[in-house]
Amino acid sequence: MISAYQDSMSVTENIPVSEETYNQILDLRRPDETLNDTLARLVDKIKKQRLTDDIEEVMARNEFVELDL
Fold first, then answer.
1. Separation between Cα atoms, residue 31 and residue 59, nearest integer Å
2. pLDDT 10s digits, 10-19
């Protein structure tokens, strides 16, 4: 179980995960990071990758929209 605590909003959630997943997250954690920091960093990385993937998909299909500026 991962327990995440957020300082600014004071939210605590318990997220059930397998021991293997928990250990993999710990392996990805940097020395100065909390689990919340690690998960936030990983979420940010995935969001950026999804945007990049979406842009590449649109470019591959040549689907562009003209913007009136």
1. 39
2. 678 888 999 9
- Number of CB atoms found within 10 A of residue 56's CB: 10
Amino acid letter for position 22: Y
List, in order, residues 6 or more apart from 50 with CB less than 8 Å away.
none
| In 1-69, alpha helices (H) | 19-28, 35-61
pTM above 0.85, yes or no: no
Q: Report whether 30 contacts 40 (CB < 8 A).
A: no
Instruction: Return the exposure string of 1-20: e unless at least 16 CB atoms fall within 10 Å of the residue's CB, then b.
Output: eeeeeeeeeeeeeeeeeeee
Least Cα distance to 5 among 42, 37, 28 occurs for 37
